[in-house]
Amino acid sequence: MAAQSIRVRPILAVVIPACVLSLLTLGLTRNAVRAAPGADPLSFLYTAAKHYEPLAWIRGADRFSSGATIFVRDVQGQHPLVPGFAASADSSVSFDGQRVLFAGKLKAEDPWQIWEIALAGGEPRRITSGDEDCIRPFYLPEDRVVYARKTAGRFVVDTVSLAGGKPLPLTYGPANFLPTDILRDGRILFEAAYPLGSDTVPELYTVYSDGSGVESYRCDHGTARHSGRQVSSGDVVFAAGNDLARFTSARAQEVHISAPAGEYAGDIVETPAGDWLLPWRAEAKAPFQLMLWTPGSTALRPGITEQNADAVQPVLVAERAVPNRHPSGLHDWANANLLCLNAYTSKYQFAASSIHSVRLYTRDGAGNPRLLGTAPVERDGSFFVQVPTEQPLQVELLDAAGKTLKREAGFFWMRRGEQRACVGCHAGPETSPENAVPMILLKSTTPADMTGATAQNVSGGH
């Protein structure tokens, strides 16, 4: 993105525990990060805390267990953004660059809640309420906000109007979920463990703003992936273990980014000059600091350094394009329909004509698998089923003898009234379907009932 195409404001907001501040703006100088000629100085928000644990959410814990405070730094100096708050973090800037969402605590014993404040000043306005922690907010189109809410010891993703009202849950699996960005196409990028439903290795997923269409961003699972952000090229850049990697549209797998050695926390910011402002530390016992890096170069440049504190979560304060609005296609139906075009289209290898039927499971109140039903799979690998909604679902493929060929390791969900077609079973979002009518629809356009009303035992389709 060209520097002259961005309007910026002379504000630099800092989240930092009071009593710990020792700010050295070593790199954010006129020589390090330049605005366009005649433009105002560049503006950023970032989070600093005595201790930041980026993956604490995966076990339902607090990433800022020692608290944090937002400071604003501008040409006049620096001051607290919300001086009356005991803690504040997770800043997110509105599309017009005028307002900030953040998670805050008025008193130290309060739960985290979502607030909004104008960058020009004024009183903060509370968006959420209740006794549950609400964190990691992002603006959505049409004056909505998405965030994570802690309930029954785990984080789920909700969306709500900025004007208030009843929240809409977007995630329904037995896991912890945390939003990490809003993509330009309107999808919500979030992180959860893989397999979905576990508390093991973090992975990146997407879901639409009505909770439909959940899927992993890529299917080459492996290295821990978290704190992803979309950059101007459209790529998603994220922390992969201690390193950096990206997803690019031309590749089905992550692409390693050759960056200087150290540990990266993701949540990068791309400046108008093309540099990246990113959290980095030399080793695990050192605090995270914000560093400037020109992609492809061999060295990092100091950006913002805190003494005995972590500096993370940089955010550019600037106007930006509003992501695409997602027009919901959900119907007013109690259940949902799932069409698989070809179960043989998969990262796993199945012998021709080996898949005979499909089983569907959910989880009971104790977390144990519960069979919902069995349906036929046709010779071309297609099946069409009606499933219950807003609960964990798991697919199992069977051979003619009823033996398991492959059972899904994690879970997915479908929203009420959702109709979804899958190219295959764990085929990857980059896979295109064959240009053919699936055999299951040539037999019948009525889906097999897998809602759990009866635990069917249907023979295969061939």
Task: Please tell me about this protein's structure.
This protein is mainly beta and 462 residues long. The chain folds into two domains: 3-316, TolB, C-terminal domain (Neuraminidase, 6 Propeller), CATH 2.120.10.30; 336-449, Immunoglobulin-like, CATH 2.60.40. The chain has one helix and 35 strands. The chain has one helix at 439-443, and strands spanning 11-15, 23-24, 44-49, 70-74, 77-80, 87-93, 99-105, 113-118, 125-126, 134-140, 144-151, 154-161, 168-169, 178-182, 188-194, 201-207, 215-216, 225-230, 236-240, 243-247, 255-257, 263-264, 269-270, 276-281, 289-293, 301-306, 310-316, 336-340, 357-363, 369-376, 383-387, 394-398, 404-407, 419-422, 448-449. The strands form eight sheets. Strands 2, 22, 23, 24, 25 and 26 form a six-stranded antiparallel beta sheet that branches. Strands 5-4-1-3-27 form a five-stranded mixed beta sheet, with no helix packed on it. The longest helix is centred in the C-terminal third of the chain and has 5 residues, at 439-443. The protein starts with 10 loop residues before the first strand and ends in a 13-residue tail after the last strand. Residues 1-39 and 455-460 have low confidence and may be disordered.
CATH architectural name of the largest domain: 6 Propeller
H/I helix tally: 1
Q: Mean of the pLDDT scores? A: 87
Give the name of the CATH superfamily of the largest domain: TolB, C-terminal domain
Backbone structural class: mainly beta
> Regions with pLDDT < 50 over 5+ consecutive residues?
1-39, 455-460
Oligomer: single chain
Shape: globular
Helix content: under 10%
Give the termini distance in whole angstroms: 55 Å
Report the radius of gyration as a whole number of Å: 24 Å
Strand content: 35-45%
- Which CATH first-tier class of the largest domain would you pick? Mainly Beta
| Total individual domains | 2
